[in-house]
Amino acid sequence: MAEAKTIKATQEVPAEPQHTKDQFLGSVKYAASVDVLNALLDSEKLYTASEVDELLRDFYGKEVRD
Description:
mainly alpha
């Protein structure tokens, strides 16, 4: 009899896509936060949607100071 071979399938979780500042500024999803994103994001850096969402949560979660 032939031996049964066990093959482990390794599935890599695909990396979240990264986008430029301009791509986020032109996105319908972030249209309400364009001014904030324009101030927060660096045009030389790439960001994931999760990173941008976290930046916005941090920004909008801050208390307004006098």
